[in-house]
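Take a look at the protein record below and flag anything odd:
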Amino acid sequence: MTIRVDAPFKLSSDDLETLVVLYQPLFSFPALAYYMTLYGLAQHDALVEERDLLRRLHCKADTLVLWRQELEQLGLVRSFEHAHLEMVLNKPLSPQEFLSHHIYSRLFAATCSQEMFSLMKERYRQNYTIDITKEISKSFDMRRLTSWSAVEEEDYAKAQMARVANYEFDALDFFKGFSIFPANLVSEDVMKMVGEFGSFYQMSYVDMKSVLMDTIKYDKSVLDTYRFEKLMLEKYGKTSVKEVDNPMELDPMSYLVYRQGHDYVSAAERSAIMSIEKDYGYGNDIANVVIDFILKGKNKQINKGYIDFLVQPMKRKGVESLEQAKAHLNETETQFTNRKNKVVSEVTMPEYSKVSEDDPEELEALRKQLLKGGN
């Protein structure tokens, strides 16, 4: 069996001390070796074979499962079942976080004694808390930037735009710092949805927390995805055309609202439009050209199938610029028109007998001819 392992962090010497001194006494099984082995292998290759782990750890497959479950219970590993097992390693808590944890601290005291717990509290006691209202530190002197020129500002703005263009919302890291959100609601689908919307709208963690808390404020046992998407669109999915010099500069959702003249966008339309960037890697400008092409047509229906029909050939042809996209869509429209105007060949109707019903002799001759053919 192949296991995909992800360890998105680097262990420090303090982390290693926490694992050995605080976490290890809580393990019902010697799972620390498993954690460290996974961490070491993840630094070089994300894919690990189970048989390789069994050889390294000198154990059986069912024992490995028990060790993994022990790490999961103490929050050091999260496991997901897909085509193959996926394991995401979590960084251990700091000593202060561990010893103030509602569960881990009590379990440590029960396992190692209250005396040991008190000793650890003293060893890792937090530094004296400073009253920040009494701070007398000197603020930064803005006059030190008086030499900043317009050219430097332009270069700086370009660098910032490049960073924003590659922005990716880290849903895993986001939920690690969002402890008040119900853990039972954080499914794989929710992680995927939050990551996609956060990246698409280039949101901060604070803004995303606000939307999620608004989503569950009426019922904390259910995450209403329809309400989440509706809130996202209302708060972040629309930019007024007055805020830009050219409507084509709008994000795709705002451009659709601008073009159709009302602000209703269905979940299916939103998903289809987002797929232009998500599935094909195209930016707002090309997405808006595709939307424009669809709305100018007779059908005016935005759906995933039609967008795939238009955008897939663009990707295969290597279309990258806005002009190339426009040329491709114009060519597509020409092909549609030529198909509709295709010449239809005319079929000549056969000529039937011109015998007049008023001529008795011709009718009699025709009757005899038919009778004779029948014989």
Notes: Residues 161-166 have pLDDT under 50 and may be disordered. Strands lie at 2-6, 47-49, 77-81, 85-89. Residues 27 and 70 are 7 Å apart (CA to CA).
